Amino acid sequence: MTTVESKVERVLLAEPRGFCAGVEKAIKALAWMVRVFEPPVYCYHEIVHNRHVVDRFRAQGVIFVDDVLDVPEGAPLMLSAHGSAPEVVDAARGRGGVVVDAVCPLVTKVHHELKVRSRKGYTVLYVGHAGHEEAVGTMAVAPESVRLVEHESDLEALDDLGGEDAPVALLAQTTLSHDEWRGLMESARSRFPNLWMPNRSDLCFATTNRQAALKAIASEADAVVVIGSANSSNTVALETVARASGCPRVLRINEADELPDDLHGTVGVTAGASAPEALVQEVIARLAPSQGVTEVTETTEDEYFPPPPELRELLRAVGTTLSFLSGNPQPERTDPAAEDRAVSAADVLHMLAS
Q1: CA 28 to CA 102: how far, in whole Å?
Q2: For the segment 42-70, what is each residue's pLDDT rounded down to a tens digit?
Q3: CA–CA distance, 204 with 196 (Å, rounded to integer)
Q4: SS3 per residue for 263-321
Q5: Which residue, of 3, 80, 206, 274, has the greatest Cβ tally within 10 A?
Q6: Are 110 and 171 in contact (CB under 8 A)?
Q7: What is the rounded distance in angstroms from the CA atom of residue 29 to the CA atom of residue 95?
Q8: What is the largest CA-CA distance in the chain?
Q9: Residue 134 annotated as catalytic
Q10: Model pTM?
Q11: Do 172 and 128 contact (CB within 8 A), yes or no?
Q12: 15, 134, 180, 239: which is the annotated catalytic residue?
């Protein structure tokens, strides 16, 4: 890393940061598969939208594919955290190999809501980004019943739904900006007064928390640095939030080496929910604020998602086999992933690099 003389006086670090629970689950699950199987292990789409995480797994022999039919029959396959279309899941399981679905439980919740509303005769308005993997997978759950809403103009084009009393529901991509979602939600409710919505927001709590923390620092900063990949929806949402909060300069970077040399004064730092903590620390070290770092905490996250059930069964089977081969044909019935919560995804990535 090139050393430059920093003109940054202080850094305002938005909390929380680090991996969200869904990303933690997915990274640790894929790491288990790398340990259990000889390479290559296959993954449908990027396991999470972060270049550094994906590159780390590529170095371990993971092959990322955009079509499960590209996976050799019998090969181990993981489905990404963003969720997959039902036909993709069926095709994956039809390949004859071990399939582990690392879908985030919050995405699973939206899939379930869409399925139920569709069966009850609703037209579901899905607020999301066209082409995003989560949106594609979700809308495929009930394609005949769902309409994508990305802009106000999409709502204006819904004259064929039957007027104010039409059975209409509203769901959302989990990684949206809260402000983006709120604006479209209010417009939809105005257009359809009887609009059905879930009791609990579809938006990812980690995404919402990071946006709230960023709002708390953006107006005080001369510039905001958002750490994360360009194809990460929640990272892009953070850029939008920073600009809407009045920050005069907003930068999205993948790593510290992409920082410009002319940053000065007070710099706000935040990171997407799939950005490793190590990247945050490297950015702060590169900024080298003369007056130090002030952490601004919005909330403390302690959400935990356990390993996918298919992986738990696989690890139990491996443990039983190893016990038998070691001369203990009746091992204690323990869960090899029982201590999963005590190990962070950041630690797992570090171990993979060792």
Answers
A1: 10
A2: 999 999 999 999 999 999 999 999 999 99
A3: 19
A4: CEEEEEEEECCCCCHHHHHHHHHHHCCCCCEEEEECCCCCCCCCCCHHHHHHHHHHHHH
A5: 274
A6: yes
A7: 20
A8: 71
A9: yes
A10: 0.90
A11: yes
A12: 134
